[in-house]
Amino acid sequence: MAMQSWQEGFSVRVRGRAQVAHSFSGEEFGTAQALHGITFTVDAVLSGPALLPHLNFLIDLTDAEAALREALAPYDRRNLDEMEEFAGQNTTCERFALAVWQRCAAALPPPPALTMLKIVVRESDLAFVEYERGLEAGAPPGLYTVAVRGRFMAARSLRGERFGASQRLHGATFIVDAHFHGRKLDASKGFLIDICLVERLLAESTAALHQTNLDQSLGGVNPTAVAVADAIGERLARGVAAEPLESLRLAVTEHFRPAGSRAAGEQLHTVVARGRCMIAHSFKGASFGAAQALHGCTYVVDARLSAPRVASDGGFPRERRELEAALALALGAYDRRNLDECAEFGGANTTCEMVARGVWARLAAALPAAAEGAAGGEVLSLSIRESDVACVAFQRALRPPAAAGTVLLVDLDAIEPAGQPEEAVASSPTGIVHRTPVERLAAVIPHAMYAISAEADGRAALVRLGLASLPPSRCLFGAATTSPAFWAQLPLTIGADAACLALVGGSDDVRAAAAAGGVRAPSPPLSADFPLDRALLAVVQCASSPRGAAHAARVEYLRAKRPADQAAYSAAVLDRLKEQLLPRLTPPRELRVLDLGAGILSMLAQVESLADAIGCAVVTYEAVDSDEALLAAAAAQLAERGFELSAAEEAAVTRATGASAAGAALHLTLRVADVLSLADQPAAPRDLVVASAFADLFPPPQLAALLARLAPGALAYLPITFDGVTRLEPPHNGVGSVPSDERVMAAYHEHLEAQGQYLHPSDFVRAVEAAGGAMLATGLSRLKLPPEAPLYPYMLDFVSTGTAVALWADGWDPAAWRELAIARRARFIVDNVDILLRLPEAVQPAGDSYQALELRAPRSVGFVLRTPPPLLDADTVEVRSIVSMISGGTELLMYRGDFDVSDEPLDKTIGGLKDAGLAYPMSYGYALVGTVTAAGAHVPMGWLGKRVFTFAPHAEAAYTRFPSLLEWCSPADAAFLPSAETALSIAHDAHPRTGEVVYVFGAGVIGLLVIAALQGSAAVTAVDPVASRRDLALRLGAAAAVSPEQLRRRAADVSIECSGNPAALQAALDGTRDAGTVVLASWYGRKAVTLALGTRFHRSHLKIIASQVSEVVGEHAARWSKARRFEAAWALIERVRPSEKLPLTTLPFPNAAEAYDLLDRGVATIAQLRYGEEAQPHRSRF
User: Fold this and answer.
1) Domain architecture of the chain: domains with CATH
2) pLDDT tens digit string along 501-533?
3) Which of helix, strand or coil describes residue 958?
4) Which of 641, 805, 975, 1169 has CB atoms 3.0–4.6 Å from 885's, for a disulfide?
5) Which residues contact 42 (CB under 8 A, 6 or more apart)?
6) DSSP tally for the chain: helices H, then strands E
7) How many whole angstroms separate alpha carbon 462 and alpha carbon 478?
8) What pTM does this model have?
């Protein structure tokens, strides 16, 4: 291997510095043999194939920077000659790079997250040294690189029409970088090659061309940068010894853009384009710190396209202007956009790595076809820089786009709302519904798409369908779509071959006209059974066409699935089920069964066989499914078996009576219902719950509680529960634009999780055990589907439609993968497990003991371990915490010990505080957001798994009644609810009239929300000594914002004091007009309050209102209940989105003491605590 081969994937570059002193041994070092100092600039470049799940970065930049700092720290400001590790060695740049590499590698996370580390050591802008090696155990020896730079000026004229004005004689300045590669250092000297030697050789090589006419000095060849690189490379190669060098690479740069390079034995030629992109985005996860709030940044983006050959005229196979135009088009999709709202990212963190991959895919699709000699071997690299000390890159071999040339023509006129994709995916037990928002498809599909309509203006239809981002040039409105002439002319109109056009949708008349005009319509007309998203995927060969009406297709799918399931059932689990059932049944042995997600009664045969084996005389079987068509098909099957059918008095219920093969009486009830609604009814006696391919459709705690509610103490048999593994046999490793099976299945599993499927059945088993149940048996139930299996085409559709968006976004061709899978007749292997459980007898909390925060003394925070109640009350829920907010007002007084000791409760309206007094130790907090993990018998089952807000102290869990469901609100925003309600209460007490002037003292979280609540109803002036807070007040609706020194006296009709500073109360009294109102919203605790209540106050007729949120009092109390104010507070949060607008600090729950301290010292304005998996250490990537 001549050089370290380039790696496909991501890389991150961070920079550090070290000041060192050292000396060298050997005459070749000249004056450097004396002790001297130098400052090294050191870059660490970390590479890897994939990003960390959910976080979407290769490595946290702060971790990478910390590792580099840790590696450099032992050498910074040290004399390297005195360090034991360098004893007897010259501390050349090469030796120093190796030492830094070893220390940095030890400080980094282990593979596979990172696979390669390169250390770059610079001592000037003209020379640098690199050391690069793989991070995995047993990696090949590392590669050293020594680079030097030279320049020269020359005249030339280029030959070839594509060179335009450069065909005339003109001058040019060339920058030449020579890179020498090798794996062994000179043992005595400590370097790869004498850098002074190569600088001299490069100077001599460039001098031969300096101030010459290259038309003559290059021997008559076209004097392109490639020819320059060849000429200098030959001269350099003659001047250096072959050992210990492995290769020489030359980069010739024109106009500060890399233009050509030459490596030993092969050539690599590069063009570079640069662009910029201004974006806004926010991140999820405490590791992003302040960047969790919406913020803007400017990216500098470099695209490098390298090819191993040149065109026949000696120029580049790609024109630089082509790359620049394609980059501008790719960046235009994101420029001045909020990436959080871009459908292609689907709400994921838009880290630099993710954006680089997105720009790469768009750039690759936008590049024109390769010119002569360029096909094959091209590598496209995309780097994004948001600062001068960090850079992220993504590179991959350039592959042709999928199904190149197909142009999609979407007829807007024949698309009914029923044919649109659903935003939320149905939770059908059949698993057959896999829908994709058209907006996400349109963002990544590598095909030109046009919208066509006979209407003069089809923009409303575009918005409705999710195609609003389609540029006007791709919208053909007012078209004569029923005229064959229109379709015949269309190829000329849009500049495409008629054979490439594909009509999607269209009425019968339009489709007939298109066919007459030479345009094909490969897919059936759109309908509720064949929506636009499925049609688009079918046209580009990523899905099959529909198999009839949707309800019939669902039945056929379950019929195709039945034989595969029956062959997969675990015999060991069935034997264990028989053992467990026998002692439960007493003569005459009636077996009472509940079948959830019953479909077409695929489990009935299994239950009949089981009942006959244990000698049951009667089987009472209740089948529940939300799909009426499936149960209708099941009833028809029973009728064919000779069962007697009858309609029940209840709506949507059918009864059937028959017998098993051994003569057991079978009494069936087919009930069309949602299983969650069924759980809210009184439980009937049941011995066994069966649910095939069902357990992976619900959050584990919700499903555990559901089963316990439906059949307390019963057995639960859950076969064919997906275990998160899908693969093809034999596997394919991918080729060209075809992804590997492993990559496709990873995308498929990510898609299933995004759709709400749960891929880890062990989580469900643990939830049942935590609720008091037990696992009795489990066994593998593996589906093996050869191409001839009836279920095979369905499975292929699930995978190819579910992964198309992700694969396109990464530059792969999902249609080619699908075609190859069919051609190679690979079989699907799907791993499932059969689970047998004993359900708990009563509802128990899902969690174990939990940590709760405790204020123990002034400025002293601790934790106490608490135990959940043994059983939940009927109207109580268990909430496992996600986030809670620390109040910067009342709670901070409690933390500081500034409260007045009293026998008053902490808060008589909050369950967790009403029994606690104003004395240490105390639990405190009243803004907690979490997930309902267990529910009492009277709580609707739909609450399980939902996020809720509750007034509860800071703790990992809360046990509460009547929390508030979060429908649209993020946890971080929801934690502001008490602050928003307090702000509304203050605004109601202030009650300014239209045209009045209002002063708000204190632009903390309460003051800012008061300003937002009063926006539009009065002229509000914010008063705060901190300039940044005044700026926030103006953004939230204040008409003016002043410091206390700038305040006008006797100017406000209403003054609101919510700063917590007693001095502000005097300022409020002084600033309010006679007969005005002062609303005192602060609680000062033990702080001394000194007021000047002299003549002016005595004559002012001021009204002072003590405002407190716990109760609704005043004239408006007859109209405003607490419930109404609560709803208004949610509306205020929805309008303001405080977690995005206000300066929020987030810390993990164990770091609560640090959060209180930051608030106490005024370093933070608002602080929230994160719990569980989201409680990552607070780090900023900026």
Assistant:
1) 11-140 (3.30.479.10), 147-263 (3.30.479.10), 267-397 (3.30.479.10), 419-435+446-540 (no CATH), 552-838 (3.40.50.150), 850-975+1146-1174 (3.90.180.10), 979-1115 (3.40.50.720)
2) 889 988 899 999 999 998 888 877 877 777 888
3) strand
4) 975
5) 15, 16, 17, 18, 68, 72, 100, 119, 120, 121, 122
6) 32, 45
7) 14
8) 0.61
